Amino acid sequence: MSLDELWSTLFDFSDYGALVALLWNSILAGAVLGVLGGVIGYFVMARDLPFAVHGISELSFAGASGALLIGANVIAGSVVGSLLAALLIGFLGTRARDRNSIIGVLMPFGLGLGILFLALYPGRSSNKFGLLTGQIVAVDNPQLTSLVAVAALVLVALVVIGRPLLFASLDEEVAAARGVPVRALSIAFMVLLGLATAVSLHIVGALLVLALLVTPAAAALRIASAPAAVISLSVLFATVSTVGGIMLALGSSIPISPYVTTISFSIYLVCRIASNLRSRTRRLRETAA
Amino acid sequence: MTEEATSARNENRYHRRVTDSALIRLRNARLDIAGRTLWQGLDLDLQPGELIAVLGPNGAGKSSLLRALLGQVPLTAGDASVAGEAPGKGGARIGYVPQQKLFDRGVPLRARDLVGFGLDGRRFGPVVPNSDRRRRIDTALERTGTLALHRRSVGELSGGEQQRVRIASALVSEPSVLICDEPLLSLDLAHQRAVIDSIDGYRRQSNAGVLLVTHDVNPLLRIVDRVLYLAPGGHRIGTTDEVLTSEVLSGLYGVHVDVIEVHGRVIVVPADSVPFGDHDHDLDAVVGDHA
User: What is the pTM of this model?
Assistant: First the structure.
C-alpha cells in the first residue's frame, strides 16, 4: 500500500457534509460519552481503578455479544454484563490486592465468553468486531435516547455523591471516622462505573474503553490539581477525543477506536510534557532563588 | 412502655446531659480483639480543655481505643460516649488525625481541598463555593501555619507539611473533641513544634478536649494534663508524675523498670535487661527517649 493509498484509507472527506448529516446522532452520542467519561474518569483515577474499568468492559462485552446472539437489546446486554462485573469487583475486592486478582480472573473469562458468543453469531462480521474495537454505527434515535438517559443518570448521581465519594476515595480512614458511609459509596460507585462502561463500549469498543474513561482524566491530572479544574479539563479532553475521533473516522471504513485513542493519547502526551517542563522550570527557579 | 417509665427515662437523659461535662466518657470499658482482652475496667473522663496522652507498648490497644471511640469497633463490654453521643455518631464535633499515611504524588487534591473535607466532606450534593467556606478553610490553614501552601497538591508536600494540613482539616469544623493517632510520628523538630502548638492553641482557645496516642511523651510534657498508660498487665490514669514512676510502670509490666528524669525528659529503662526478652524493645518504644 502506498502512502497515498494509506492516507485515503485513513481519511476520506468526500461527501463529508452528507456523512455528517447522516451520522449526526453518532456525533452527539460521542459528545455525551465524552462528558460522561471525563467526569467519571476523575473518580476512577482518584480511586485508583483503571484496571477495574478494563475488567468491567470485558464482561460488558460478553453481555453485549450474548445479547447479539440471542437477538436481545445489545445495550441492555452490555449493561447487565458490566453491572455483574462491577458488583463482583465491588463486593469481593475491598482491598486493592484482592481487587486486582479478581479483575485479572474475570477479564479473560469475560473476553472468552464474548468471543464464544460472537463465534456462534451468524450475522455480519462487522457487527461482531464493532463491540470489541468500536464502530460508527448510525446510532438511531431510541439508542441515542437510552445512551443519553444512562449518561444523565450517572452524571446526576455523581453530582449528588461526588463530595463524600471523593473524601472516601482519597482519605478513607478519616472519612470513615467522620461518618461517611465508605462501603456503600464504594458499591454505588462501582454500579455507576458499570453503567458508564457499558454505554462507552458502544462507541469505542470493549478493548478501548480505557481511552475514554482513564486517559483524559490522567492527562488532566498532569496539569491541574484542583478538583473542579481537573474535571473540566478531563471532560474537554474526552469530548475532543470522541467527537474528533468520530469526525475523522466518518469517511473511512476503519473502526473508530484508533482515531479516538490516538487523539486522547496525544493529549496525554502533551500534558505530560507540559507538566515535566513546568516542574523543571520550578526547580530551576528554586535553585536560582 | 408506660408513660411514667418514659418520663423517667427522659428525665434521666436530661439529668445526664446537664451534669456530664465529659467530652469522652468510658465506663468499665473492655475490648477483646481476636479472643484477647486488650484492656478492661477502663474508666476515663476527658474534660473540656483537657489533653490526655495515651501511652503504652505496641499491641496494648492504644489505636484500638481510638477505633472504639470512633465507633469502628464495638466495645466488648461497658459504655462509651464521645461529645455526648454514642461512638461514631459525633460527626463534625469530632476531629480526627490518623496515624501518618502520606498522600501519593499526583493525588488530585490541593491542601485546601483536604481541609474542605474536614468541613463538609460528609455532606451530599455539590460544593457551593462561598466566602464563609473559604474563610473557614483559610482560618484553619492559618492555625497550622500552612496557609501559604493552600493551592499546592497535597502529594507534593513534605511529610511534616502534610501532617500540618491534616491537623487543619481536623480543626476546621471546630470540633469539641480532637482525637489524634501518633500526630508527631516521623516529624522533624520544627514540624513537631508546629503541630504541638496548633493543637495546644486550639484547645486553649476553644476549650476542646484532646486525646492523643503517642509512643514518646517527651515532646508533649509541657502540654499534657494527664496520661493513660495502657500495658498488658493493666492500665493507669493520672498526671505524668503519678503514672510515669518506677513503681507504677514496674507494676504494669510485672518486671522492674526504672524511670529516670534527665533535663526535664522522662526516660524508661529496664533495670535488668535479661528477663525482658522481646519486651525490651517494646518498653523502649513506650516512653523512650530515642535521642
Answer: 0.85
